[in-house]
Amino acid sequence: MKIKKAIIAAAGLGTRFLPATKSVPKEMLPIIDAPIIHYLVKELVDSGIKEIIIITRPGFKTFNDYFSRNRKLEDTLKNTGKKELAETIKSISKMAKIRFKPQDKSLPYGNGSPILAGKKFLDKDESFVYMFGDDMTLADKPVTQQLIDVYKEQNPKAILAVQEVPLWEVSKYGVVTYKTNVPYKYEIESIVEKPAMEKAPSRMAQFGRFVLSYDVVIEAEKRQLGKGNELWLTDIINNIAQRGDKVIAQPIDGEWLTTGDPLRFIQTTLKFAMKRDDLKKDLTEFIKKEII
To answer: Measured between alpha carbons, how far is residue 96 from residues 67, 175, 179 in Å?
Structure first.
C-alpha cells in the first residue's frame, strides 16, 4: 500500500489562524527563515509523498509564487555572490509536484471541505495524507511517516495523530475515546469535541495530521453539517468509527506545535530556533540576558 499524495488545508479553511491580510495567508508567516507552509511540505517530502495539493481560499496566489521557480532571482543572487541562497531557493520548486486548488465557494465552511475540494486529484479508493495548515511538528522521524507506517501495518479507515495535553486544555481540542480489548490498543470508539475537564474521556488531543482512506471522502460527500452549520472532519471520522470500522488515534514520537495565536507562534519559533546549530548558542545567551 503506497501513499503518495497529500492534501493541505490552507489559508483559513477551517483551521486555527492568526489574523491575516487579504494578500498574505498565515501559512506564509516565517518560522525563522521559511514560511510555515514550507515546513509542512518538507515533512511530507521527507515522508515519501510525491504529490501535494494545497487547497486555498480563492484569490490567494502567494503559495503559487513561493513554490514556483524564479530563475531571474536565482541569477541575481548568484551574480551578487549569494550562490548558497540561490541554490536554496531553487530547491524549493523541486520539493515535490505541488498543485494549487482554490476551494469552491459552494462548499460549506469547515475543515472537512478541503477534502472535497481535493477529491479530483485522488484516484478512486486511494488513501492519502491530510494536513491542517497551522500545525507544525518537531520529531526525529517525520510525524507523517510515523502515521504512514502504522497505517500500512494496521490498515484502518483513518488514522489521526494525537498528543497528550494538560487536563485544563482538553476543552480546546477534540479528545479521543479509546476502545478496550482490541488487537491494536490505539483504536478509538469516538472523538469528543472540546469536552469539559470533568467529562474528558482522555487527555489525548487530535491535531492536524491524518492518513485517510477513500472511505473518508465518500463520507464527506454526504455533507452532513455539524456545529455552526460546518462540515467537520471530526464528525466524518466519528461516523466511520461508530459504525464499527477501525480508526486509530496514534500518539506521536515527537512534539506537536501550534501557531494559532501570538504566544504559541513565538514559542514554536523559539523551539525551531533552538534546533539550529547556527542560532542556539546566541539565542540562549540572549534569552538568559533578557530573563535576568
So the answer is: 9, 33, 38
